[in-house]
Amino acid sequence: MIALILVASITFLVGMLISYLFMSNDNKKQFKYLEAEAKAKAKAIEYESEHLLQEAKIHIREEEMLLDKQFQEKVLFLEKQKTEMNLTAKSMEEKEKELVKIKNSLEKKEIHLFNLEAQKMKEIDYTISILEKTASMTKDEAKAHLLEQVEEQSKLDMALTIRKYEKQAQVDGKRKANYILAQAVTRYAGEFAGERLINIVNLPSDEHKGRIIGKEGRNIKSLEQLLGVDIIIDETPGVIIVSNFNLYRRAIATRTIELLIEDGRIHPGRIEAVHAQVKEEFEQKILEDGEDIVVELGLLPMHEELMKLLGRMKYRASYGQNALAHTLEVAKLASIMAGEMGGDEKLALRAGLLHDIGKALTQEHGGNHVDLGVDICRRYNEHPTVINAIYAHHGHEEPDGVESAAVCAADALSASRPGARREVLESFTKRVKELEKIALTQDGVIDAYAINAGREIRVFVDAGKIDDLQITLLSKNIAKEIENKVQYPGEIKVNVIREKREVQYAR
């Protein structure tokens, strides 16, 4: 038993010794591997450090060379400046010496001239004294006697000459003026058509009249409210009448109705959509019309707003005469007259074209078309002659040149032509515009339209500001103000309309 235990112990000890020896050998191998790996990494780090050190040395050397170069350049620049300053100083000294020489020379010449002048005066005084002794008259007496004789002789000659040339100037001036007017009129052949207060819309059939009126008059009420015109549907077959004094508003209304008839769908919603489309088309069209006029006359460049206003003048009338037709007539006549008188034809043409430009703004802004025209032309830097022509053609200023005078003459010639203007139409237009202006100045009023030849004023109010009780008071106030401020025959109906509308969208 003891022997077995002893053998087992010896075997255990031998096994432990063998295990220790094996593990010790394995650890040594692992240590050697780690040691070799560490040495390799250290060597790599050492190599990289040396490489970075070399790069740093190269960079520092390049910086030193660059700084040295800049230093050398700065030194050269300063030396060059110093040299130039020295040369400039020397040049200034030389110029100063030269100026001193010139000054001395001039002083000597001035002294010499002074001496010559004194000698001349002595000789003149000596000569005068001899003449006074000979003529028994002083110098002043001789001068006065001579002037008196010359004046008496000249008065008669001057009177005869002035009378002769005044008469000749009158004859020549009248002949020249008649020639210029005759040339201008014969060389310009303008068209003329008086503006009316109505447009006629042709219908495919009388059935469309009922569709325009709509159920319980909904469509025609919507048309008149939105378009601001009076729509007359009578027994005349195949036509309806659109009436309003405002040409632009009437043209938009006419086009809107024509499109609705072509489309066939006539109801309030469709009326609003077509009206918005037509207004946009008209705004673009008036700009294109203005551009066409300016290009045709060769007056580019011109500001876009001025060209737009020229296009709008097609829808403006003055005393029944179309404003654009009148403007073109004045422009062409003024150009011809200025050319005959030796002026600038292009400038006269431009001044004539813009002389009434303010009329395109009077319907929306009110006021005097002369002041409005001057303001808009000054805003867009038009020529001073254009400004003067606008003022001068209504007598606010005197014409400052041939071109302005030609515009004034052409304006009078165009306006005074037989049948060119109708006073009655203009007074009517002023009256209906005054009706609309009175209504629009009231609080809560959105739109106001004079219709039915000025016998009715239709007023649309904001339902959020004016209630049903207040519209009665508003209508009375408008009627009272019309009675106090406007002269009119018969009576005028004040029709105040309050409409509440809510719009929601289902999404």
How do the strands and helices of this protein lay out in sequence?
Elements: H1 2-135, H2 139-187, E1 198-202, H3 207-213, H4 218-227, E2 230-232, E3 239-243, H5 247-263, H6 268-297, H7 304-312, E4 317-318, E5 321-322, H8 323-340, H9 345-354, H10 359-365, H11 369-379, H12 384-392, H13 402-416, H14 423-440, E6 445-451, E7 456-461, H15 470-485, E8 493-498
Parallel strand pairs: 7-8
Antiparallel strand pairs: 1-3, 2-3, 4-5, 6-7
Number of DSSP-assigned strands: 8
CATH class of the largest domain: Mainly Alpha
Which geometry do the CA atoms define?
flat
CATH superfamily of the largest domain: Hypothetical protein af1432
Characterize the main sheet: 3 strands, antiparallel
Physical arrangement of strands within the biggest beta sheet: 1-3-2
Low-confidence stretches: 189-195
Q: Based on helices, strands and strand pairing, what is the structural class?
A: mainly alpha
Number of domains: 5
Mean pLDDT: 77
CATH topology group of the largest domain? Hypothetical protein af1432
From the N-terminal CA to the C-terminal CA, the straight-line distance is 104 Å
Approximate helicity band = over 70%
* β-sheet strand percentage: 5-15%
What is the number of helical segments per DSSP (H or I, 4+ residues)?
A: 15
SSE pattern, N- to C-terminal = HHEHHEEHHHEEHHHHHHHEEHE
Description:
By secondary structure, this protein is mostly helical. The protein folds into 5 domains: 41-136; 137-187; 191-288, K Homology domain, type 1 (Ribosomal Protein S8, Chain: A, domain 1, 2-Layer Sandwich); 305-421, Orthogonal Bundle (Hypothetical protein af1432), CATH 1.10.3210; 426-498, K homology (KH) domain (GMP Synthetase, Chain A, domain 3). It has 15 helices and 8 strands. It has helices spanning 2-135, 139-187, 207-213, 218-227, 247-263, 268-297, 304-312, 323-340, 345-354, 359-365, 369-379, 384-392, 402-416, 423-440, 470-485; strands at residues 198-202, 230-232, 239-243, 317-318, 321-322, 445-451, 456-461, 493-498. The chain has a 3-stranded antiparallel β-sheet with strand order 1-3-2, with helices on one face. A 3-stranded mixed β-sheet has the order 6-7-8, covered by helices on one side. The radius of gyration is 51 Å and the shape is flat. The chain starts with a helix and ends in a 9-residue tail after the last strand.
